[in-house]
## 1
Amino acid sequence: MSMLLRNGCAGRILKSGAVRSMSTSWWKHVEPAPKDPILGVTEAFLADPSPDKVNVGVGAYRDDNGKPVVLECVREAERRIAGNLNMEYLPMGGSIKMVEETLKLAYGENSDLIKEKQIAAVQALSGTGACRLFADFQKRFSPDSQIYIPVPTWANHHNIWRDADVPQNTFHYYHPESRGLDFASMMEDIKNAPNGSFFLLHACAHNPTGVDPTEEQWREISHQFKVKGHFAFFDMAYQGFASGDPERDAKSIRIFLEDGHLIGCAQSYAKNMGLYGQRVGCLSVVCEDEKQAVAVKSQLQQLARPMYSNPPVHGALVVSTVLGDPELKKLWLTEVKGMADRIIGMRSALRENLEKLGSPLSWEHITKQIGMFCYSGMTPEQVDRLTNEFHIYLTRNGRISMAGVTTGNVGFLANAIHEVTKSA
Amino acid sequence: MASAMLSLASASPSASLSLQENLKISWKRGTSSRINFLGSDFSKTKSFTRTSMTVAVKVSRFKDITMAPPDPILGVSEAFKADTHEMKLNLGVGAYRTEDLQPYVLNVVKKAENLMLERGENKEYLPIEGLAAFNKVTAELMFGADNAVIQQQRVATVQGLSGTGSLRLAAALMERYFPGARVLISSPTWGNHKNIFNDARVPWSEYRYYDPKTVGLDFDGMISDIKAAPDGSFVLLHGCAHNPTGIDPTPEQWEKIADVIQERNHIPFFDVAYQGFASGSLDEDASSVRLFAARGMELLVAQSYSKNLGLYAERIGAINVVCASSDAAARVKSQLKRLARPMYSNPPIHGARIVSNVVGNPELFNEWKEEMEMMAGRIKSVRQKLYDSLCAKDKSGKDWSFILKQIGMFSFTGLNITQSENMTNKWHVYMTKDGRISLAGLSSAKCEYLADAIIDSYHNVK
């Protein structure tokens, strides 16, 4: 009945064979969705005809010529796998080899947890897919739980847990005045949350702020988590990109593991192996023992089956080829360091440029922050000016993707930022 | 602290559980539930809390999770792999095999991949809706490039994770914009359909489809059930090569199905996973969808390239929503994107590039059509051989002609669960428990063996 009412004259009955005039639609009530705040930036950038345009929006690495990069180790892997393998369905849990190598990165080459088979792990659709699978798993098996999300965080985190129907809370993270970590408030929130709460933590290179806890701070956080019995879910999308060394970037996770936490972890190869569009990642959940890990894995597969049946093979093959060959793995590590170093260099350059221009503001945070992003502190209005007057594209929260900064555009960028902020 | 805890335990001899067990119970739910221990309010005893939390952190909040049942379809392949018997035969999952029972990478796919390798294209994120070139060719393949719906830009097309992912996006759209509306699915249907709608929280009910007496279509039952459903229901139809039965409506029957759907104001929703595999012709296999579109109906179509381009593991497909206007199509597309973003952000690129290179290149497209005919042809010939073997070996007079009438990769044998189990346990023939066999996994060399197994299971097992 409500269908008829909703669709008004679409309820007319037609004689068979008559073509109905399509003046009304089932989809009348569907509104246009707002543009995605991050991916919408690239769309706008692409549509801009200006020759001087700069894209520092999405977190996708660019070389010093502003071009996307396919890593050498990846090209070599693709040469090796081209044509000689069929495309049969992967098992529902994905490529076993890829998952094995991926766990080593997060948990350590010689991890006891891996040896004891305590980790339930499945290949996932990059970081997004890993988070979504976990959110659905959390909803199904801890239906009364909520997720505590840092402020700010990657915008899509909110979408993911919302669509998974898991209620959200926030905890303090970024301290705008110092453009650093609001550690005291963060610890307060951790203490005040009900025992056994689920927390989303960025393992390294926090997105969008680039602000990470120090090692000592991570230890305190881990201890407080123990006291409160909280569950730590790590989203690690930038392993290797923070310091240039994947082992170092996994420190937060290792601290938690040392303290005996049974964590969850989402990993992505989008950035650190440049496999963005291949959608390769991994979701892992640490369990008490092998038996439990087998059960949990089976349930993760059960959630994946009605979403996409089994994950895509190509990217997984690339990863397992690269990480499974010591030479290629070494090459990869060099290339990751190269990318991280270029970004660190650009951070220095941007800061120096702004200081040379005589900016009244402090830009120390540019070099203190870590990873791909710089949380500039600019307001949405200032960002709009950057876009409208200078054709510089970034997200309205003032987040600059340093990966899009080059020796060619850093001067232009600094000038533009100075222009819009000098009277702030 | 610890000693305080222990003395508390020993002070109450009535506590039959150990300290450890009590703590484990207290963490069962993994939430902030009140904890009662030895009759006292646990949460009030602060020092107690800190010490016990340190012990409890090793206890998983997912303790009580039980093993999920093996997937009825994908689980079959896993069981097959574990079997060491020399005569074993995998007729489980619908994945095409050559006469040598090897997986088959189409020549056009190899060519496309080489082209891609030479070009050395980057791996940047696709837009949320997928590769534009792919979306264009996939809609054209489905509807025909000169079809009104395409000319008038009335189709919202979004690349999806093969058929499953495309169905799931559509289901999520249905749940969000038609809350409470149900989807009618055929009885039987592909096993994963129910999982998809369940997980998307879309209510479903079944319409009669398979008639065991005739091993054919229960057309009257189908029409009757579609008629009886609340108006404005979604009706899930298999565009061609129905899975698992292989029984398709005739063109005349499709017209009548369209009639009743229009009468009842339902929305047709086609799952097209086998375009090209039914008759061998891509266009012919699209005729049911095109018939509905020609009537000016709004409809949904999920497509998959797993089988017809052999791209199974690349997970490439699309969801198409044909709308009354280009404005509606634009809005619907934007909302499909909004559903995809928190699922996987954007779809995988590799398979999309392969498809757009094959379908978008006239030479490769023609070559594909030939390979398609070859694959469909092989299946038709093993159907014939199986039928011939059954007729030759079975003296009971049973009519096996349904094998020839059924279309596509699958045959619904009519074997029940126990009989299907006999196929596996005694004959090492792996199939799904609903009696479905995938002829794509059958070689002409094995037809006689299979015939023996079917005859034995049918006649000697109840």
## 2
Amino acid sequence: MAAGSVSAGRWTNKERVLIFSSRGISYRTRHLMQDLRTLMPHAKPDTKMDRKDKLFVINEVCEMKNCNKCVYFEAKKKQDLYMWVSNVPQGPSAKFLVQNVHTLAELKMSGNCLKGSRPLLSFDLAFDREPHYRLLKELFIQTFSTPRYHPRSQPFIDHIFTFTIADQRIWFRNYQIIEEDGSLVEIGPRFVLSLVKIFQGSFGGATLYENPSYRSPNEQRRFLRMTTAARFKDKQVMKEVQQLQKGRELQTMPEDPTHDVFDTPVPEKVPRIELAPPDPPAPPRHRNRPFKRQRVRRRK
Amino acid sequence: MKCEWCRCWPEPRGAAVRGPPGKGFRCDEVGSMARGGVSDSDSLSDSDSDLSDSELQEAYSKGLLKPGLNVIEEAEKHYINNVMGLKQCFEDFKKNLNWVERLDVTNGPADDIIAKAEGRCLGQETSDIDPGDDFQREMCFYQQAQATALEALPRLHQQKIATKRPSDYFAEMAKSDQQMQKVREKMISKQTSLEKSEKAKQLRALRKYGKKVQVEVIQKRQKEKKAMMTAVKKYQKGLSDKLDFLDGDKTFLKANKESGGSVQQKKRINAKRKYKNEKFGFGGRKKSSKWNTRESHDDVSSFKAKIAHSKSNHFGKGGKKNANKRPGKRNRQKMKNRSRK
């Protein structure tokens, strides 16, 4: 398997990446992690880390495993996935929010590549424009490129990792090279990274860069809730305003002198005072008047 | 202080906190919305804000507060962008490796051959991508990868590094064979479903046309039959002596316009006609010929035991399928009594 790679040269670029995650990750994240481990032969797995431990513990873990890079997946609230990419002893490190994860197992991605073959890394031109992107580019190159003559690597180069910047996010794609003329098929996985912060040290240290266009998922959810709540609250406010207006005293209008211009005088009625009790009502003339049939019979 | 709307605790962010006494503090996102919708006079939050009167008095005496209506200003959030730090870090961090070790290429998207041929202006930057437009975005990524491949592969060939896997090199792939089988099956199923739907559409169209043709043919046949019957009746009644209408099948049909399909129908009619003619002979005059005679009754040549004794409906009239399936009244009663006991 590795016949071509080992015998031809010596492995000098000793890069080892530790890829692991915290507890509470979803199945998609787990598969993504496994996919990355498959694609990167210079990667080492590790057990899940308890989230109670502080992040600088990771540095010690990496040291124990003799790794000098780390990709750490952190899941918060079982919903949000953050990815840390770090150069372990001295730094720098970067934290990203990962979205739109599609794994290798998706049936729409029909490409395939050798397990452990070296990738070509393709970066967007925008990576050279800003200093923070340049730093990120260097970090990605050192982390994701498979060292030459690595014992588990394959000698052929048949896939490309693309990192593109669009919409202030970094989009990752993995394509298989079918023909030398440039026809490609996507292998997967694919994800989108939103940069949160770049730190000077590994998993800590001074903040070198903070992304102004980053919005934490909590903020986003809150914003959505606020907009729905604000509509309801506006209605309530209107109701209370109406209540207040009801309670207010009615405005008294000034007296209108022309109010009773058209009143016609009515003669006053003399009140009749009865001194004697009224007469009893006359008894009814016909009590129990019989029905017509009987009346007719009687008449006959 | 606590936001009156959403009960969050946004930082005052450095600015000196000012505010009118009766009004509660609202955090920026909500405050701007709320201020637009609700007028100041209808403030709900007459409840005590965290700014007590005594504190305000102190601030006023110190000169921090000025008379008049004070509105809380939010300080601008400063995002850290330590350019020097970044550059320094980059210098410390970067490794000067050969390109062969890194295999990285930075480039824009590859030129679209079609667009070039059409002479459309190119120079589509990645900043122009509308991330909502999925197709355009993916095409942009694809083109970027293509450009990389076109640039890097010749370079690798120059350095005598093999890029293409030879056909006899078998090694473990990133996706197992099972997975690739599933992928292939999915693609095939998609294709077949597409073809099926296409076929169904065509069939539907054909059926419509076929129905039209069928109606025409039936009408033609009916017309012919009517003409034939009148001719036969005429002969039987003795109005005409000639039996021309019998041979005149061809003349009859030729008189009407022949279409391509009628040739086949003519043959079919002739075969059936032939059989019946053989069995019963030519009609002739009705009164003089008998067709339920002793000879015809005793003639059992057309009896086929296999067909007569078979219980399937295939040879028969195509009778009701359910004819034998339901037991008769007596049997049903029997079954009922049996089950009741």
## 3
Amino acid sequence: MSEKEIPPPPRWVVELNSPPPSRSKSASSLPDPPGFLSSKAVSKKSEQKTRKPPTQEEMDTLKLKKSWEIALGPAKQLPMQAIMGYMSGNSLQIFSIMMVFMLFKGPLQAIAQTNSTFARLEGENTRSQMLGVKAVYVLMNCLLLALGIWKVNAMGLLPTTRSDWLAWEYARTPLERAYFPR
Amino acid sequence: MRWHGIFSVALSVIPVQSLFVDEAYNIDFHHALLGIPQPHSTFFHKPDASSNAALLYSLSDKAVLGALNPRDGSLVWRQSLASQPTVNATTSFLVAGEGDGKVTTAVGKEVATWDASDGKLVWKYTARGEVKAVDLQAVPVLGSSTDGAVQDVILLTQPLQEGGSYVVSRIGGDGSGERWRHEDVDTKLDAQVGIATSLKHLFYITKSAGLLSGQRTKVVVFDIITGKQLKEYSPALDSETVAVDGRLASASGSEAPLLITSETPYKTIKFNLLGNNKVSTITLDDKGEDIVSVSAHSALGTTAESHFLLHVRTATKNWAEVYHINTATGDFKRAYSLPAIKDASAFAASNNGKNVFFSRATSTEVSVYSSQSHGHLGRWPRNVLAGSRTSSTDPIYAIAEVAIRDNTNTAVRTAIISPEGSLYLVRNGDTQWVRAEMLAYAELAAWFDYAQVTPLAQELSAEVSVDPATAYINRVYRHAKELMHLPNYLVKLAQGAFGPAEDKPSVREDLLGSRSLILATSRKQIVSLSGISGAIQWDADLPSAISDGAAVRSLAISEGRVTIYTSDGSVSVLNATTGGVIETKTGTIPAARIIELPGTPASTLLKVNEEGIPQVAVDLAPSVPLEGNVVMTQDQTGNLVGWTVGTTVRKTWTFTPTPGKIVAVTTRPEQDPIASIGKVLGDRSVLYKYFTPNMAVLTTMSNEILTMYLIDAVTGAVLHTSSHAGVLDSFPISAVLSENWYAYTFTSSNPETNALSTQLIISELYESDVPNDRGQLSAQTNYSSFGPDGNVKPHVVSAAFTLAEPMSHLTVTQTAQGITSRSLLAYLPGSHAMIAIPRHVLDARRPIDRDPTSSEAEEGLFRYTPELSLDPKTFLSHARDVVGISHISAVPTLLESTSTVFGFGHDIFGTQVAPSQTFDVLGKNFSKFQLLATVVALYLGVLALRPLVRRNVVKRGWL
């Protein structure tokens, strides 16, 4: 392609490069329509002052705060799960079975992935504090797990009663046998 | 866990199981039987004057009256004249009028007339006093029924006690009762009496032992219309009569009734035409052999010619002589004789208006002769019914009906009674149908499982006995051999996949396991029936080595052999598959009952004699019973005695109910598996069941008080007692004991209102009344009834239900593992039906006067209601009329859900019961085709969508 054939820039480019002439004095006294920012205003706003980057301590505090939030997350689920468990009833239906499954799968998975969950937030200085956070996280998940066990028990799926072990009980054998004519 | 609770809740939604429409007539079989027809009360007869087709009417020796369709042998209608079929009702009579559409019977002291086309009772007449009918004859009707002439009958009754009088009476055919009567006070009870009718006269014949001569025959002649005695004479006939049916006179109801007598060696026959003093004598040619018997056959119609036939039998030959009577002079003329042949023959006389025909049936052919000349009108070789099990057998009686069309074409229908008790109908020579009437005499039954004798079972047991290496090689060989059947199997599988879910007996047999039922009859026959279809597989007589008086006392089946114990102490062993005799051992110790005990080297047989004393059957096989076993017998006074059996037999205990008498002893079924030793309650705690194989329930009656005892048969200790007042022993009383419960039923009358009520009581036994508690013995694994442990009594919970009608023969369903809930089986004698009542309906723990709590509801308990409705919709026998069941037997099938049930006694009825529904079989509405079609359709859909999906995937990759 040759240089000659460059088409003239489109109109919108020309208009962008050459802003409209400044308004007359009388016009400038008029307020801008709502929502319209005149170039002057824009230029005033764009003058941003550069923020000072946070210090390491600040970052650590921030990360710790964030990790506490994560650690206490399961506890927040607890009331909702409890209500759901109560509402779904103790019969063996697809909904309650799914729910029990999720109640077990979620916390177990979370406990297994504790370290990776907090890996991003861990720092050199906060290591010791993070241990406590992780312990709380595991505890909270155990609470969820306990809720699951309570639910399973309520559904009658735990062998906790005499009838569950009935099959392993045997009848007493009589030492004498009586026979009858046929 | 709560599965149990959910399951029982699901069950309680359907309080009573019902029979599905498509199951009825498919899963059950029924032999509607009459019993063996009596020759004198079996005949072809047109149900009414307008009908063309005759029915075969028969009154059997079990007092069951029935009309059979000669076309297919099906029962048109049936009436049991005694309320239930009775054995040996030989004094029952059946007569039919000429075209008035009724048949009349006499049994005991009752005369009844039944509508010939539908079997409805028209009228009933009961003779006065303590008498029984000994003869019944129809009065010939002068004029037709359209003229208003009614078919009267003449009844002869015999007093039951000495001092009474014989009564001849004419009973009005319109139900108006007695028209006239004549009493005879002179004749003794041991005399032979009989009546015969002619068109105008009635002959009353007595044969009594004279003081000097052998027997004295007296004939009294009455005017049949007025009952006036016309004359009395004593023909010089002092020997026995030869009428075919045991009656005194022959040809009664015809123009010329006869008295025919003879005595061994039957060389001379004496005749008397009744009403005529003259006695004629005829000498028979014995053809060089001793004549064994002579019997006379004559046609019964009023218009028939006075011809009769004498059937003469020697040890090897059968022939017949035909005589003509000159009714005016009383002379007899020998017309012709039929050839003597070797085959056993049965003769039958029949008439078609004036013409008399004699039919002769042998095992190979049927022939018809006119009474006029010896040339046969027709002769047909007998053909066996296609697919029939038996070859044509010797006839013992025959009843014939001859039809002549266009004066040339002769056709004959012959009903033949064979010695083994079957009723055949032969049309010309072709057997049309066979009815196995001997099944009505079944007394004992035992189940034979074909799995015992299949080659596979034998091979497997052989593999167990050899060393593992050989067994392994053997197994590889066996599987290799089985591969040869693979193509066939695949073809069958393909057919099965696309065909509908079949319900053929063969398919059911594959599913349920093939069993057959071996029956022993009171006629000393052994019959094998298929357990699924009820078809007869074989029948056999008891081996001739068994003495004549012996009755079958016990049947046992093991390893493909039927062992039959008879009352004389003998044992016969038959092959259970074919009925062939394997061996016969004559014993010296008579046996009323048999007990089998573990012993060395093999199990020991104990014979219990009539006095109730057990004895080791050393006459059959030497064996020593193991020590420490107890057997229970009933002695002559009805007391129960326990014996300790070892090297010696010692009396241990005696049980005498005070007051009263033991009427029945009920024990647990031989096979009564218990799947769970406790009952799981709604809150998942356990109520432990009390059960022992040593329990027995005794039914005792004294003065309208029924007392039930639950005893421990080892020590005779009473575990529980219950009593009911006002119980009537004329109604059935029945008990059943299974698992940890027993049930019994009785009918009692309220002393104030005299109202009858039938009750069903159920008692459940538990180790303790507290859940999760195993009672005093708690953790013990065994116990002895003799020690302190023996004092432990069960906790009993009972409930009573009232029923709308009496119930008898309680039994319980049986399944292989005992997991399936049980049903109580019973026979309803009033409804002629068999029923199954689910056990959970009869739960003794149902809450009374309140609704169940949620935990009780979870257990499946629902509110107690005293009345137990027996809905006809739930009858196992549905629309079938099942008469005279006296035994019900239930056995497990290969399916845990299903139990095979079989009832016998008179009718034979068999079906399958699934008390908890058929949870282990695909339903009938399961369509294999639909399933396969869905799979194929889905596959095709996937194939069709494949290019589309591929295109989309490619597009997504590019854009």
